[in-house]
Amino acid sequence: MAGLQISMLRTPSSTMKHGILTRRQSAYPLCFLVGRESHPYSGLFSCQHNSIPAGILPRGTAVYCHKSEFKIDHFGFLEDGTFKQRYLVNNEHWDQKGGPILFYTGNEGDITWFCNNTGFMWDVAEELGAMLVFAEHRYYGESLPFGQDSYSDAKHLNYLTSEQALADFSVLIRELKRTVLGAQKSPVIAIGGSYGGMLSAWLRMKYPNVVVGALAASAPIWQFPDMVPCGDFYKIVTQDFARSGLNCDVNIRRSWKAIDNITATDDGLQWLSGEFSLCSPLKKTDLDGFKAWLQETWVNLAMVDYPYEANFLQPLPRWPIQVVCKHLGFDPSVVSDYQLLGGISEAARVYYNYTGNCPCLNTSSTATGNLGFIGWYYQACTEMVMPLCTDGIQDMFEPQDWNFQAFSDECHSLFGVRPRADWADTVYGGLDIASHSNIIFSNGGLDPWSSGGVTRNISDSVVAIVIPDGAHHLDLRYNNEYDPHTVLSARVLEVKYFKLWITQARKLQIPG
């Protein structure tokens, strides 16, 4: 949304004013391509009935789509309604005599998109004899508790919380184990990335009787007030650009002032619109939004700086930041504002027009439309309060403080609610997680969300795996010939822990 200031709080594909998320959606749908690298099945999922084949793997295996009835409110008795929650199942390699279940805890978006981008589960299913389940998060995709009214007001949004989602997952797992022949003694391992990774960790913490362990990839469970410095996120983004090309971060830092200088006149404003091939010419009132769009572009590139061509948020080349930085290697002492912004425009095209099929750049669009932006606005305004800030010194962005009161006021204006700043600390334990067990926290050194992740071992069974040259949950993607050895080693270690947890569960005859 043009005109909004960037970024006190974000998730993938988001910007924010005073901490309010403004998720930008792509004008172009994400392509669903057949092939192991990008997509395990053919075609989009649609789930109108239970137990229908939703898609077919290239080798002929069906991925089944189901919907089950769940309570809208697991924790009260006044709202007694139910809704249909969607989940996807593949049992091609499952050992029906108690083989494990790998359970993906759905994020803030359509579950089919996360199924597409979690190739690790498909790669290890045969080795583990595992059933794969991808569960959609309530209020996202097709899992809408009140149908078209789900986002109509705060009353209908009231049941959109992580706690309710965890209860959904727990009930679904218990139902699967009760109704699927051979699953009664199947150990369940929760797997998720980003917000989904947070949910995987929290599912193990809150329901250890239901899941025997969890892999929480790129899960910023500590990106909450008074847990980690609010500026670390943008320091990592800046470091990614600094290491990818000479003067790359320096020139991005200089670009904000160059934008101000050039747009001081109407002719400069017109030039900038043309130089960036914008779909809509910039007005003076659009400049904050234009800067927010650029800042979000650099952040998204840091998140998806993968070692091979990928189509996660946008179609991108290998190591996309290195490609971007080829356009930003100017000597900062002599480059003109016009030359600098010409390089910035070419750098932006790497992200928005790598395929060459985009006729113009849309500043209201930065990423896939498979993410549920309105739902995340609400979650950010209630319990997902994740402070981010910039200082323009240790990062390459314009200074912006974290202002909780302004954030709270804007939430109240949007939804009539105010955030609970310390709720995640209260309900999930904050930094004090040593009493838990069987959780892997994996983080990539290139991923800005590692700023709020667990990057050190907490105990013998709450462990951290750091992937120095990994971006956002790289370890959850398919094996690829260009994968760095660090992510290959991480996946091997993750499977080693899975096997340990499965063995422990069987020895102890743990029903979860």
Concise overview:
With 512 residues, this protein is α/β, with parallel strands linked by helices. It contains 15 helices and 13 strands. Helix 5 links the parallel strand 8 (188-193) and strand 9.
What does this structure look like?
The chain is of the alpha/beta class and 512 residues long. The protein has a domain at 52-225 and 425-508: Alpha/Beta hydrolase fold, catalytic domain (Rossmann fold). The protein is 34% helix and 13% strand. It has helices at 111-116, 119-128, 154-157, 162-179, 195-206, 232-242, 248-262, 266-275, 287-303, 320-325, 337-352, 373-380, 404-415, 423-428, 485-508, and strands at 16-17, 20-21, 52-56, 62-71, 82-90, 101-105, 131-135, 188-193, 213-217, 310-311, 315-316, 439-444, 462-467. Mean pLDDT is 88; it is low at 1-60.
Keywords:
512 residues; alpha/beta; Rossmann fold; 9-stranded mixed β-sheet; two-stranded antiparallel sheet; 34% helix; 13% strand; disordered N terminus
Shape: globular
The averaged pLDDT comes out at: 88
> Which regions are unreliable across 5 or more consecutive residues at pLDDT < 50?
1-60
What is the tally of helical segments?
15
CATH superfamily of the domain at 52-225 and 425-508: Alpha/Beta hydrolase fold, catalytic domain
| Secondary-structure element string | EEEEEEHHEHHEHEHHHHEEHHHHHEEH
Helix share, percent:
25-40%
Kindly provide the radius of gyration, computed on alpha-carbon positions and rounded to a whole number of angstroms. Answer: 22 Å
Alpha carbon gap, first and last residue:
44 Å
Estimate what percentage of residues fall within beta strands: 5-15%
What can be said about the biggest beta sheet? 9 strands, mixed
Number of strand segments: 13
Level-2 CATH architecture of the domain at 52-225 and 425-508: 3-Layer(aba) Sandwich
